[in-house]
Amino acid sequence: MAAIIFTITAAGLNAALDAENTGFSLQMTELSGHDASGTEIGRWPLGGGIVEPNSNVMHFHAVLKSSTQKAIYGLKLWADDVVFATAQRVDPLVVIDANIDFAASFAMAMAQIPTEAITISTDINTPYAQILMTQHLGAVNPHPQYALDAQNAFEHANLVTLIAGVVQALQQHENALNPHPQYAFASEINPRQLFRLTHNIGTPYATHFGRAAGSVTHELEGSTYSLGNCLNDYNPIYVEPVSDYVIEDITLGQNLNRQGYLLRFDGYIQFGSYAGQGDTGFSTPTAKIRFFDESFEFLLEVPLTLSLITSDFPNNGNVGHVMYRASKDFDLYKLRKSNGQPPNNLRALLAVQGVSDSDGGSTDLQILTVEGFSILCSY
Fold first, then answer.
1. Nearest 5°: CA angle at 303, between 299 and 305?
2. Above 70 in pLDDT, residue 91?
3. What CA–CA distance (Å, rounded) separates 265 from 290?
4. What is residue 144's predicted lDDT score, i.e. its pLDDT?
5. Is the pLDDT of residue 139 over 80?
6. What does the mean pLDDT of the chain come to?
């Protein structure tokens, strides 16, 4: 990253000198970011800082955050409602990634502004390691065990680098999806997982298209995935069948519950759609998991209940993306081969049907795609 150079504005210089003349100090409060056109796209409180008395260099820090990726072409340092200093380039100064904190530290020569004329506010949410680094920088002699010479400056620079690395490592840890891979997710322990049927490799799982002036029925059946020997390896909750018994001459029981293994399917399916001109649209799709044994012999299919989570198939809308929640309760006993034994290798695929419509009076292209899914089977 190229150097970011701040320039003190005339208003900033005057405000600092006015504060000095009246016996007060000018407090730096915020940092704002701007796009290439100069439009403000973010503002963040300062996380502290100091003006080094020997060099008259101001150090200040801020944690830049955004829910979307943003390229910052300009920065403004604010003292309440006064723009104290600015930095600008034709290429981005900083790129903030979505939902990843960017810990930024800056240094600026104060030139003719006295040290005592400037103070820097500290946001209460500033990482503790960053506050420690600021205090360390502001100390008159941060290393009393060393002589105040070039060796001291060398050690000082090394410690500043180390603390900055700790701040960055801590933020990476906090932002990680799974910061502790040595532990299992709670969702994988309770309920207990039997298998997970997943397609999440950045390419569509299954697609179908047709051309018609009216409706097109889309039948999608994707690749078959191996789920392993899950039916033989797990420890199910077992309910003993109830044998026949008589109460008031009424026979009950009849061993009907057999094994009583109840499975639960839960997950998400994302669809993509396209329909041509006219009053276009898609009906709610249906989805099933089809199971096969180790010889690819069909066992049965389990229809899933789909509940809309986000977006919708557009009417007159051409391209759409839709996310559904997929769920179902199911009796494990039915997942058996014809000889009654569980398969040695359970295999599964996702089959989907959907109907699109385009009544524009011409033969229009219509597409339905299963973009990806992740379905957990637990017991």
1. 155
2. yes
3. 13
4. 64
5. no
6. 82
